[in-house]
Structures are given as structure tokens and as C-alpha cells.
Amino acid sequence: MTAERTAGLSARIGEPLGETPWMRISQQNINRFGELTGDTQWIHTDPYRAAHTPFGGTIVHGAYLLSLAITFAGQLLPAEGTSMLVNAGVSAARFRSSVPVDSQVCGSASIVSAEDFGDATLAEIRVAVHVKGQSKPATTATVRMVLHD
């Protein structure tokens, strides 16, 4: 199964894998992420104070956007016949623009590479996190995923 999956993914290198559904990032989501990670910097969690910055309000944590990129990679990667999908790392992460609270975001992806990895397949997926109404992605990253039989 691994060799067939690797060959199938390799045949799709560079091909767009589609887009995830749009999702809204609320202040409650931002606050929860901050509490879980210990990043409660006011630019993310204090709407009143953040309103008086060039951002005009709170913004989403970069680490939150990177977490979404990993999630979106898993959602978009063709993984038929896979029993387990494991995040194996992230590289080339770029935060290209801030993302205001209550933004709608979605992910798009394409396969960069696929190779046999023991009894699994190691795939690299280029992911972009898009913000509704913005022409360029806010975040891009290459996510490494291991697909196990």
C-alpha cells in the first residue's frame, strides 16, 4: 500500500488540492488559544487596548495560524487507506500579514514531495492560510506529514 500511495501522491506534485471551508476566528477562540499556550499578550487578548494600535483591534496569534496550516494540510491531503496521519514538522513558515479578530480564514494546499518512509509515506505539503477579502495569503508554510498504513 505504501508504494502505491507514495506514487499516487508523487503524481500530484504541484497540483492544487482544493480549499478547506471558511471558518471564523472569534475573540473567544483567540483567548482560548492564548490561555492554552501561555501567550496572552494584549495585542491578542485586550480589544480595548488593541483598538488603539495600527491594527485597530486584536489580531490572531501567528502560532494559531501555523496550527491551522497543519490542520488544513491534514484535511486536504489525499489519505485514502491511511490509518494514521502524523505531523512531522513545519518549515518555511511566513507570516505575511496580520489577521484581525472575526476574520474568515480557509486553507489551500499542494503537494511538494512524497517519498517512502519505512512502512509509511512522508509527504511535504505547501499550505496557505487565506483571509476572506485579502488577495494574498496571511500565512504560508511547508508541512511534513507521515501517512501510516
TrEMBL record:
Top-level taxon of the source organism: Bacteria
Family matches, as InterPro entries: HotDog_dom_sf (IPR029069), MaoC-like_dom (IPR002539)
A Pfam entry, by short name: MaoC_dehydratas
MaoC-like domain residues: 11-123
Protein family membership: Belongs to the enoyl-CoA hydratase/isomerase family.
Protein name (record): Enoyl-CoA hydratase
Phylogenetic classification of the source organism: Bacteria, Bacillati, Actinomycetota, Actinomycetes, Micrococcales
